[in-house]
Design a protein that fits this description.
The chain is mostly helical and about 130 residues long. It contains four helices and no strands. It has a domain of about 50 residues.
Amino acid sequence: MAQRIENGVDAAAALLLAGAVMYCATEFDLPVLLTTGWGVFSFLVCFWRLGLIGSPSDGFQLSDFARPAIQPDPPELLLDDVLTDIGEDPRVVRLFDPSAAPQAAPPDATQALYDALIELRRKFIQQS
């Protein structure tokens, strides 16, 4: 993982140098093919030289450590008792209780609301 990060940083540095070289080449009004060639050449040389500088060790050495034993979940989190009695204020239980659900509006209330909206629209159109 660390080697991949180092290679990415090296590539980014080489790309920055190649971009600077290509910018300078365009300032001298060189042809596009020659400008691209200088950019590729500078990228390859820079990336190759940065790869030679790499870290002297093969990697990061970790000291030995004892793996901790995995503890099971505490027994308090297990739900093993059955809900036998509902208390005075059981909001969650009442949420799903069909008898505690609000009663539906009478079927003719929808028609009355619709008629009131039609009348309101009619009044609004007459005023404007």
